[in-house]
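Weekly puzzle thread! Below is a chain. First person to post its structure in token form gets bragging rights.
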Amino acid sequence: QGGDINAWVLGETATFDGSGSTDADDDDLQYRWTFSRSGKDVETIGSNAVIENPNQAIASFTPDKIATYYVELTVYDGTEVVRSSTNVINVNTLPEGHVNTAPAAIIGKNWYTGTYEIEPSSGVSINTDGYDKETSSAYSLVREWSITSAPDGYDIDAANVELTGVAVFSLRFDIPGTYTLKHKLSDGEFYSEIEQDFEVLYGANNAPDAVASTSTKALNFMVEDTITFDASGSTDDRDHQMSAFDWVLVDKPDGSEAELVNADTETPTLTLDKAGPYSVKLRVQDALGAWSGYTDRLTVKAKSENNAPISRPIINFEYDEEQPFVIYPTVDPQVEDWDSSDAALQPWEYQYLFNTGVTFSGDAYDPDGDSVVYLWSLVNEPQSVAYARTKNMCLNGYLVNAQGEYKTPQELYEYVINLKEWSCANVAISPATEGNYELQLITTDGMSETSPVNISFPAVYRANYPTLLLEDDYSSEINSADTTLSQSDYLDRQLIFPYHFIQLSSFPVFDNQLVFGTSQMIKRYQLSAFDQDYTITNLQAVSQAEGGYQVSFSGLTDGQVIKQGESIFFELIITSPDEKPDELVMSTDMGAFTLVTRDNQAQGISFSFEIAEKTGWTFTYEPYIFLADCQGCGVFFN
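Winning reply:
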């Protein structure tokens, strides 16, 4: 209230009303108005505006600078935090009779180090901020840079000539010592200027990075809990120990008297005395005295009541005694040189050299909207077990860091392969030893835990498979992805009955890859009978109508018997008509416009069969033919 949000007048008070917020349970609401977007503080450089009554239903602020302000409302009912959409106020109009003021020049830190130190001969870019109350863009102002003092031997005059007319300071310094930089900022009527010393030295210090968390990583707690914050994740490029910590409690619930205890240590504590959100910020100092900036707000919730999360873990395939997980050959663990110029494969192709694995999905949610922490553990495994590296492994938050504990991907994977506990939502393992495996999942919202849920599966070497094994041969005459995949022995070739695959638009068959009037193989599979004979029944290849694409099996017939100990390959064949068939184009009426899109040109096509000796063991494949050149596709306004 108070003006046009797209043409707000500088100095006019803006009023915000959140009293229309409601709660389904009629709980009393707490209000928080902040300059933020999606929970992250937004700083407007040069503005000293503050929100009046930020903890009330109705709040206001008076903009003191031409700028865009983001004002966000958070409401809390003791159980759930709900953020409204952010209010955007564009302050871009000067009031009548406004008197111009001088802009403010700023010299920030070295972009590369985050300090006022510079490495000799390095590319230097200084944080060259500045602002004017009467304009939203500092770049509409005129900047002047100069060096006023430098070590002996440095040519100040030549440097200042080079700085003429530049907006962003960027020079290389070869001579160690102290340099004084001057920044002058003018709006055409008034100006301001400022000087700042920079130290050029070998081994210039980089500012540390502050990382704030709770000791348990949880963000939800009950009233009267005492929680511990943790800054141990903070890092420094030279692995320096942090010499100082500065935690600030920036928000707490209405009526709370909570205060941080030992706020200048790595692990301060806070007793949550009222239901509501508590927010902290952190900055850290390294051993050489450089401070990081403050982190974004870390917000925890204290609740007066809680609903436990609900966990529904699943495994990617339902392996059992009849269809156990197949252990394939183990990939050479030294395939980390994919970025080498003489690598045999392209970088994206190396993902296919990971071993086949078993993937578990936690699939949990919380009725209160609280964040969920996953606690996976391996509770049963064979003796003398070995594991291999697979895709989508949970790294438990560890990263490759040249200055850290794991300096190369190889070191990290050698550690992660042998983990028995994980904190990711999804976990993947690649057993290299026959036997039974069992994983257990517990989820928590920080206050309540779910009961343990166990998922088990058997694993065997291929030669010991107990029944009929279906495998993808990754062969195709018209699918480039299969051509690449077929080069690897380590892929997840095993498929599980019932098998029903619907090809989507990722890696489809493109219609311009089809040769009209000819037959081409789109997929090849392998069937291997280990324990008995198996019979193919109800084999069907469903084609389109005359003039469309026709399909057939090759190497497999209805009633065919796969003898015990025998392996056969069969292919899915598509025969293109002599002429390009009519395009199957989908038109969707969107009201104001019609969306005409490339649709699947293989509609109606399918391959299927059943295994007579096993109820429910079926095979179905539905291809996707992508229309490469769709005439008349696009958006058409009605």
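Puzzle host: Confirmed. Bonus trivia for everyone else. The first helix runs from residue 156 to 162.
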